[in-house]
Amino acid sequence: MRKIQASLKPERISFLILVLPYLAFSIPVFAESPFFSLPKFLLTLIVIVLIDLLVKKFLKRYPGATLWVSLFIYSGVLLFLYSPYIILPTIYFIQRHFHTVHVRGRLLTLLLFALIVLLVLIAYKKRLAFNYFINMFMLILFTLNVCINTNELLQRKQHQIVSSPADANIRFDTKGSLSNKPIILVITDEYSSPDELYNQFRDSSLYDFSRELTRTGWIVRNRSLSYETSTIHSLSSLFNFNLSESGYYKRSSISVASLNLLHCKLGDSLEKKNIGIVNFGILDINRSEPLSRLYPYPKNYHEVLFYNSALTVVYQNTESMKPAGFGENFNAIANHNKKVLETLPDSLQKLRSNDYFIYAHLLMPHSPYMYFDEFSQPRGTAGYVAYWKFTNKKVLQFLHELIQSHPCRIILTGDHGDREDPTIIDPKYTATAFYGFAEKDVEKIRSVQDLGVLINAYYK
After folding, report:
1. CA dist 369 to 13, 364, 380, Å?
2. Which tens digit of pLDDT belongs to each residue from 153-205?
3. Angle between helices 194-201 and 381-405 (to 10 degrees)
4. How far apart are CA 146 and CA 20, in angstroms?
5. Which strand (E) or helix (H) includes residue 186?
6. How many CB atoms sit inside 10 A of residue 32's CB?
7. pLDDT value at position 107?
8. How far is residue 216's CA from residue 94's CA, in Å, rounded to a whole number?
9. 309-313 contacts at long range (C-beta below 8 A, 24 or more positions apart)
10. Which residues contact 183 (CB under 8 A, 6 or more apart)?
11. C-alpha to C-alpha distances, 151 to 6, 156, 170, 249, nearest whole angstrom
């Protein structure tokens, strides 16, 4: 024990010990991601150990720099690796319990940084054994994470790419009846069924949007089943001709779902038919990259390594580290929605042929319930319904512009319903509308996850 204690030197600051719990907590991500590389991870460990040795050697030679090195390492490592586990739960708590209070993550990060600095200064001034206690805490946390995550992996079935059924056993008699038009899939994220909302609020105006669509030639389903209540599982299943009917797919990890997006059956089929993909979404479709990476899933080793760190949160909320993304009033979700609503119709006008499939994804009425200066509501069921109605107005104008811009077929659907309170609104039900599709074909669609089959059938 003394030899281990002497080698670790827990009374001194240790870069290695600070990092170990993070690595242990990330074991499930490492184990399930196809982008994780054991040789690269071993090299990463060597680099971490070298940094730790260099820090110890530097402080041994320059003991007067202990305070500044401690401030730099503790604030840097704790904020970079662990702040998401403090900042994000705090934001969600404030949003849920203090609806009128809006706190930005950067403010909480500054407060956490100040708290870390204060603790280090107090410990240094009082000559407390701060390093020893935090190192012991981190080693205990590391041990617990290793035990918990290793046991979880042993009990969990390893999910590979789920094999897709052949067109989900749905057949369409489209031979000779199709005109060559591009198909636009528009996702309204977390869009609840108006039937579900009406059951709760008894407000007939909830049907105004679907009535207007029906009046202008759309086929509308006010209650459409989604097997999945996770966006990435819902759409990766859709793009793979329905992986969800068995009920097992929802248990798959984000790594598995993302792999099914990067190698999806619909993308493969469209590629064989020489159909291009225009991606105005937040998810990959094979080699087609999203307009905005607002749904974080790792696509290389470095993203796997830092998946649970603050880097992922910053990357997601600054539109992939764009300078404008660090602005005080920047909102990545609202900015993405605006780009889709305002630029997709013009982009369609530039298409010189019809051999395209267009995927557009609106994070509406998904929280936060705001759209620049036009709309802002606190989180909660009342705020959701208000934003749901606002979304309908925006989308109705958007659909009109799409139809005017280029001859096309359109599928408008939610990926699932609102998940804020499942006891009030069932998140398994959304709404789906079809423009330019035969009613006999639409009748064969049983769920949101079957839509990829319909899209594929209408391209020859």
Report:
1. 44, 8, 9
2. 666 554 444 555 554 567 776 654 556 889 999 999 999 999 999 999 999 99
3. 150
4. 10
5. strand 183-188
6. 19
7. 82
8. 43
9. 309/22, 309/80, 309/81, 309/84, 310/79, 310/80, 310/81, 310/83, 310/84, 310/87, 310/109, 311/80, 312/84, 313/84, 313/87, 313/88, 313/105
10. 357, 358, 408, 409, 410, 411, 455, 458, 459
11. 30, 9, 40, 21
- Give residue 412's pLDDT band: very low, low, confident or very high (50, 70, 90): very high
How many whole angstroms separate alpha carbon 185 and alpha carbon 459?
A: 14
- Least Cα distance to 236 among 437, 460, 451 occurs for 451
Q: How confident is the model over 73-100, as pLDDT tens digits?
A: 999 999 999 998 888 888 777 776 676 5
User: Where are the strands (E) in 231-333, listed by range?
Assistant: 276-280
Contact 291, 335 (CB under 8 A): no
Strand stretches in 369-428, DSSP E: 370-371, 375-376, 409-413
Return the biggest CA–CA distance within the chain.
84
Give the DSSP letter string of 414-456: -SS---S-TTTS-TTEEEEEEES--HHHHTT--SGGGHHHHHH
Q: Determine contact, residues 52/44, Cβ cutoff 8 Å.
A: no
CB contact at 8 A, 413 and 130? no
Per-residue b/e over 407-416, b at no fewer than 16 CB within 10 Å? ebbbbbbbbb
Fold of the CATH domain 182-457:
Alkaline Phosphatase, subunit A (3.40.720)
Closest by CA position to 395, among listed 181, 184, 202: 184
Reduced to 3 states (helix: H, G, I; strand: E, B; else coil), residue 390 is helix
Please state, as a whole number, how many other Cβ atoms lie within 10 Å of the Cβ of residue 56. 16
Locate the domains of the chain by residue range: 2-155, 182-457
* 3-class DSSP assignment, residue 5: helix
List 186's β-bridge partners, or say none: 360, 412
